[in-house]
Amino acid sequence: MVNVNKVVIELLYKNGCPACIDIIEMVKSILAELGDYSDSIDFVTLDLFKDNERVVELGMYKCPSLAINGTVHYVGTKPTKEELKNLIVCELSKLLDIKAENR
User: Fold this and answer.
1) Which residues of 74-88 are buried (b: 16+ CB within 10 A; e: fewer)?
2) Is the per-residue pLDDT at 46 higher than 60?
3) What global pTM score does this model have?
4) Which of 23, 48, 65, 98 is the most exposed place for a label (fewest CB within 10 A)?
């Protein structure tokens, strides 16, 4: 699911998981803070049971788990908002550099 034209954030969640809900709200807040850059970011929630193929592909077996551009960064833990924002901004910077090089 790696998309070279966007930063793809994938969250493995389970209904009723409080940490999962916190991360969803964190990502929404970060996207709002990034303004126009948020158009270059896709946020995908993966259901532990419905999206089993992708979950296995990523190797994310604990909730919550978070991957950015196909790289798993957190398994069974919740990042701070600052940590998560730094990861997203770092990946966004790489993406914008690639887009600039291809012009």
Assistant:
1) bbeebbebeebbebb
2) yes
3) 0.89
4) 98
